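Section 3.1 - Work completed
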Amino acid sequence: MANLFLMSGPCGAGKTTLSHQLAQEKHLRYLGIEDFYAAFFGSELIHAHEDEVWEAFAIAIRCAMEDGVDVVIDTNAPTRADRQWFVDRFPDFTFRLVVVSAPREICRQNNAVRARVIPADELEALYDAVEPVADDEPFKTILYYENIDNTGLKFVRKLEH
């Protein structure tokens, strides 16, 4: 059974950077939602037709599942419901959750210099929406990283279920 590494955490914490590192180091297929917006509209800055973009994203994940390849999913998945969406739709993967945390101010700083700047009020709401992982969530492995000062992500701990 293939592994799906699902990123979870606030915008600007460093999930995309870590996703690319994991993809390279572990030879994972990288799938990032921003790449799908770019493919649809020529720019990751345009977020429209969300249902269609997410359906294409789901098809790509399904293809990886059918191919039996390990994959890293670069998106927020900040809430339990968001994480469960992936688990429900792709049951043939072994799920490994990668949680990236960062102080609000680090997320603000990183947001200010990214290509797609999220409006301040939306960034704050997204940060506030992040839910800690519950004990009964169905992840075989949970990897915790933190970005406390923007000098690099630091591995904190690994939990096995």
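Second construct:
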Amino acid sequence: MSTADTCFELESWPSYFKTSSTIIIPKPNRESYNSPKFFRLIVLLNTLGKLIEKVISECLQFHLIANNLIHLCQLGGLKQRLTPNTGIVLTYFICSGWVKNLMTSTLAFDIAQFFPSLNHHHLLLILRKAGYDSKVEQFFSNYIVDMKK
């Protein structure tokens, strides 16, 4: 049994996988380091925890795609649906609008901080609706609490 399987079996994500450390690295070739923008923050997580998260992510993605639970327009973060594909789709929509004499605009935003603002209750409902075993739901219920920096 793998560590990931054990985590699911115990319905728990160990606290030492939830703790991250931030390292501050100065950007090179700066005359002065008196401003925060002259530094780079690197967030470090437990390597084994990151590997297990990757395995879990791959399994979830496979299940969601195989059962048509991902909208066709969802591109970011999925295998074979990368950022360049998003650019191609966006270009297609813009050009299609031009053909119809429509004006086209785009709104872009950074979702790097999406997970901390994710509605955890909603995530658990989605997992339940997707037909995941209750152990998976309980695992994620434990996974999303008490993340520490």
